[in-house]
Amino acid sequence: MIVMSWTFLDYVDASGSSQIATWLADLPPSTRLKVRSKLLWVIVNHTALGQPLSPPFFEALSGSHSGLIAIRFQVLGVAYRPLCCYGPRTGDVTLLAGATEHNYHYRPPGVRDTALARRAEVRADGKRAMPTCLFEETN
Amino acid sequence: MPIRRDQLVNLLKNRDFRAQFVSDQPNEFLPLQIKRLRERRGWTQAELGQVAGMQQERISVLENPDNKGINLGTLKRLARAFDVGLIVHFVPFSEFVDWVCTLSPGSFEPASFDEEVSSWSYRGEQAQFDETALIAASRYGATANIIDITAHKSMDWRVTEEPLITSAAPKGAHYASA
Fold first, then answer.
1. Which residues pair with A75 in a beta bridge?
2. Which of A6, B1, B4, B109 shows the greatest Cβ crowding within 10 Å of its Cβ?
3. What pLDDT, on a 0 to 100 scale, did the predictor assign at position B174?
4. Whole-prediction pTM
């Protein structure tokens, strides 16, 4: 798959709320700022590069969670693994859920199943993916 | 979709955020650039290590965005191995924003000196040709096409930025450069 540029989107729930925004808002302010910066660089660089999302910046999940892609970065010693997927349109990447990984276990528990369900929603209804909140003003 | 300048500027109005964003730039950009430069040359990590005088494991760490930073000495060695230029300097945020918003696939894979040299000599010949065409055209009071000249000006000192000819071309005169 070769695309000229990626467009990063957020999964939004039925009320139109970005679930990545909700996850970020729950992080401590100093951590939130660092996580947001890291995520933005991933988006900036890979939007420009336009190559398939590949290691070590991304990891395609396999098995029962195939179709999900984890964005990999560390902040303050914590391994962050926000989950995303390709789509709903060609050239889109939708951020589905915030997550961390510890000893090969994703947190919060069940986050990969949640992300998979959200992916199905996004694929069924493209309106469940909106421009990412990450470029909105910081607070 | 390119990154929107106004959105980025709004984000950078938060002083803590912009400090973090600047701090993260080398850690996020350079590993990706090192990987792309290596792959462009068809090198394995071990092969790059050999050229740069480093262990493969070190190259693996350098290509990982979670590494704790790359020192200047390592950057110089990699610049030599890839035969590319290296610029490390402070810039105003206007320049920083421009850089972020104009990133393209080519930003990650700068050409080596040798790759550029062939391009330079070609452009030099073109520029010389263009200049000759302009001089010839001026003798006949013609208008020459200077579009390509301006494209070359950053590459060749012989090219002037000012249009050489301003008068109208006589009917049937064709002195346009390639």
1. A78
2. A6
3. 41
4. 0.79
Interface of B with A in 93-122 (CB under 8 A): 100, 103-105, 107-108
Domains of chain B, each with CATH number or no CATH = 5-110 (1.10.260.40), 111-178 (no CATH)
> Does residue B170 have a cis peptide bond before it, meaning omega lies within 30 degrees of 0?
no
Report residue B123's pLDDT band, with 50, 70 and 90 as the boundaries: low
Q: Distance (Å, rounded) from C-alpha A9 to C-alpha B135?
A: 55
- Token pair in block for residue B59: 């190259």
pLDDT at A129 over 90: yes
Structure tokens at B169: 């071309």
Helices (H), chain B: 5-12, 15-40, 45-52, 56-62, 72-82, 93-101, 113-139, 147-152
Task: Give the closest residue to A38 by CA, choosing from A65, A73, A67.
Answer: A73
Any A CB within 8 A of B65 CB: yes
User: Which residue of B1, B21, B104 is in closest CB contact with A7?
Assistant: B1
- Identity of the residue numbered B172: G
B-contacting residues of A 72-91, CB under 8 Å?
A: 72-74
Return the amino acid letter for B87: I
Rounded Cα–Cα distance for residues B83 and A109 (Å): 48
How far, in Å, CA of A118 to CA of A124, rounded? 10
| Residue from A72, A60, A63 nearest A1 by CA | A60
Q: Look at strands A92-97 and A7-11 and give their pairing.
A: parallel
